[in-house]
Amino acid sequence: MVTEQNELSQVQYRQGKDWPPYARRVLAWNWVTWVLNFADRGLIGPLLPLLVPALGITYGLAGTLVSLFFVGYLSTFVGGFLSDRLGRKRISVFSVISFGVVTCLTALVRGAVSLGVVRVATGIFEGFQYPTAAAWISETYPYRRRGKALAIWETGYSLGTLFGIVVATVVAAAFGWRAPWLVTGGLSIIAGILFAKYVKERPRHETPGYDESLVLQDQGPAPKYRDVLKIRNVWVVFVLHGLYNFTFWMAGTWVPTYVIKTKDISFSAGGFITAALFGGVSIGLLFNGFIADRIGRVRAISVLTALSVVSFFFFARSDTAIVLFVLLAISGIFGAYISSAIALVTDTTNPRISGTAFGVALFGGELGAVAGPIMGGLLAQFVGFQVFVYVLPGAQLAAALLVWLARDPRRLGTAASDATPSGGQSTAS
Questions:
Q1: Are 372 and 281 in contact (CB under 8 A)?
Q2: What is the Cβ-side half-sphere exposure of residue 148, based on CA atoms within 13 angstroms?
Q3: Please, what's the b/e burial string for 387-415 (b: 16 or more CB within 10 A of its CB; e: otherwise)?
Q4: Which of 370, 294, 371, 304 is nearest to 337 (CA)?
């Protein structure tokens, strides 16, 4: 078995000149649909100040309704397994069109129960896309470009959330809280149809991820799905993703109401302050991916997330509106470690089971996403908003420390830096 210091230096990538355009197409269409996947989730936080009185519910129940979406989103595990069995494209198209339809149906709800049901259904369909797209993009790019590719793709999550926030704030102010769901749902259906028409899927044994696996797995026997449970990075990312989603979905759900209630900020400003957070995340994903590809995933996540901890802490102690905007944006920039974290799964997983690996790893993220809005709502209702906001830096600090448990094959030779060298077979010693 080659050592961790040089194990990827022996990879000989076999992709030809037609591979980079294919890889860019895969990344682009998965990015577009990822934007719309998260646009739906970006609606709910800014709409809560309207939804709570319209439906006559408490903050605790509102947080529970938000978290019900993430209960459905636990389907990530099933989505990853199905993508390994049925193909990445087939599951992606099904996911995008289905969540578009159900998002439109959200505009028709009449009470808390019907809203809860439709949010669970939306979560189920959106959850299928996450492990599928993560595995597809990861295996399509080599190690030295994987962090950047995943960072670009993950900007779809932050920009999609930002887009949803803007749609919710602007459209709801003019037409009421039901209209934004029709806008994002309709766009999702259109995108899913175009995705089905214009994107093709190459066999997994042709990918850079497969070439790397020949070295990383020492050309051993074909992996089995249960082997995923033995991969250390899967479980590290399981926890990291949980902490990440806990932090940002608690913030995305309750920061608008927090600043409106405690800082005397208007409805529109309350919506846009969350836009500052996810705008910062959009920049941070690219910044984190760039740094991680150069100094290693683990080191980048730990150092940059520690800076996010500091910014979140001072956000909790500030009162001036402009300072709140700036600190929240900085928290997003330094705290956007998720693309680097999920790259750790592909770095040490055979592509033949990577969809399942992502399904397991991302399942932890959805547990965190379920817990975040509920805990935020309960803290706001029974303890006060000021207590809830201190939970944010605590979760980020835990991630900065726990990431050191991951394995990071970061010291690469020159062969790993080229995505498309021609000829040759991968070798392992």
A1: no
A2: 12
A3: ebbebbbebbbbbbeebeebebbbebeeb
A4: 304
According to DSSP, residue 334 is labeled H
Q: Report d(CA 77, CA 128) in Å as an integer.
A: 8
Cα–Cα dist 147/143, whole Å = 7
* Cα–Cα distance measured from residue 378 to residue 373, given in angstroms and rounded to the nearest whole number: 9
Burial of 3 (0-12, 13-18, 19+ CB in 10 A): exposed
The CA-based angle 108-114-117, given to 5 degrees, is 115
Distance (Å, whole) CA 331 – CA 335: 6
Residues ≥6 apart with Cβ < 8 Å to 75: 123, 124, 125, 127, 128
DSSP string over 18-54:
THHHHHHHHHHHHHHHHHHHHHHHHHHHHHHHHHHHH
So what's the pLDDT on residue 419? 35
The predicted pLDDT at position 400 comes to: 95
Query: What is the C-alpha radius of gyration for the chain, rounded to an integer number of angstroms?
Result: 21
- Residue 287's Cβ-count burial label (10 Å; 0-12, 13-18, 19+) is middle
DSSP 261: H
How would you classify residue 266: left for phi > 0, otherwise alpha for psi between -120 and 50, otherwise beta? beta
For residue 250, give the nearest of 413, 393, 73 by alpha carbon. 393
Domains of the chain by start residue, with CATH = 22-404 (1.20.1250.20)
Average pLDDT per consecutive 10 residues, the chain (429 residues; last block may be shorter) = 48 83 95 94 84 83 82 82 89 96 92 91 92 90 83 86 89 90 96 94 84 64 69 90 90 82 75 82 86 86 95 87 90 91 80 76 82 83 80 93 85 36 32
| 354 neighbors 345 (Cβ within 8 angstroms) | yes
Question: Cα(335)–Cα(314) distance, rounded to whole angstroms?
Answer: 14
